[in-house]
Amino acid sequence: MSFVMIVELLIVLAALYVGSRYGSLALGAISGIGLAILVFGFGLKPGTPPTDVIYIIIAAVTCAGTLQASGGMDWMIQIAERMLRKHPDHITFLGPLVTFFLTVLVGTGHVVYTIMPIICDIALKKNIRPERPCGVASVASQVGITCSPIAAAVVAFVTISNANGYMVSIPQVLMVTIPACLCGLMCAALASFKRGKDLDVDPEFQKRKADPEQYAYMYGSSATTLDKVITKEAKASVFVFLGSLLVIVGFAFCQMLHTADGKTIAEAIAIPKMNICIQIIMLVAAACNIMFCKASPKKAVAGAVWQSGMVAVVAIYGIAWMADTYFGNYMDEMKAMLTGLVTNYPWSIALVFFLVSVLINSQGAVVVAFLPLAYQLGIAGPVLLGVLPSVYGYFFIPNYPSDIATVNFDRSGTTVIGKYLLNHSFMMPGMISVVVSTIVGYLITTVLFPGYFGSFVQ
Description:
By secondary structure, this protein is mainly alpha-helical.
């Protein structure tokens, strides 16, 4: 590894670090500074921006944004809240399941902001330490990204894998990630079930409870969505959204199944590639929500779902372009350095995914930026599918919006960011979830069902 190559790598890492400190749009914008230095300062050939993935994200978040604007997301949250309040004793297990499946359906973890205060309220009123369900539920809201058929990480994995000879489909990815991630989350919930002191013997909590103002703050109100009026248009928008997901999954199966002459059904009836199908279907669903379900376009673009999705677009745009520029120019050197390691320990790429995710706070950006490198290093597609859950590592440093919001939602003060930064409420459930999910996913694809999850040509 030459001195110049090391300096350029430090520039890439510095851009990621500074961008993460500013957060939000800065991740992509400051990556643009790194890209400019590499191209104009060091003369590297510019890489290719990930346009296919960006187009899919735009279409998906536009659809999800209209779902939120029509009130459909409120109805989904109400259904979830009724279930949670019906079984409050199991909130440590049910809370994470709710946030997980909401993310799976909508494709973004930012739906957690509505349901998290309810999870905190149920736990506190049931005298359950809120840190127990809240820590896992916040983690679960991000874990669900690699299990959603419209999330950037999943779509990018399929698109990039197909381009590199690993013919895997969205349903096949979900057949690995959903059971793997559920195993990881339930292990994390089990470890959190008796986590920390019970509220009645926690001196810090009892001290706050004895203060009349703090008591009124903790117990004086109840977070709920059950008082919201749900219109028939809001309910219709949910069915439009779910119907669009079913159509996408149906088209994905057409890419998998073959006719008698060896062609896929998609080839036989001229169905476009999945990236095109997803974009068309999501835009059609968004249009239906606007025209028939009273989803205001202004309200849609002002909502948290659409705005967070556009932030993800900018982050992936800058980060992936910068990374592709650097690694594309030094692919031969990378192969020479890492071939021995990945040949003997192909699963070790999971450590790279995890460490990069700690820095850049985007699972989709990790996949877009580093999956092509993994394929160029000769790592088999089934291995990469198995370790896909490892692209979630940004719980490690508690600066992600959903984690910060969860700390603020917990009126009991038990969900915390510790004095030493890393001793926070999300570390234990996050590590257990990711480690278990990655191991289970790896076992599914390489041990239990070798050769089933798509064909791979090296």
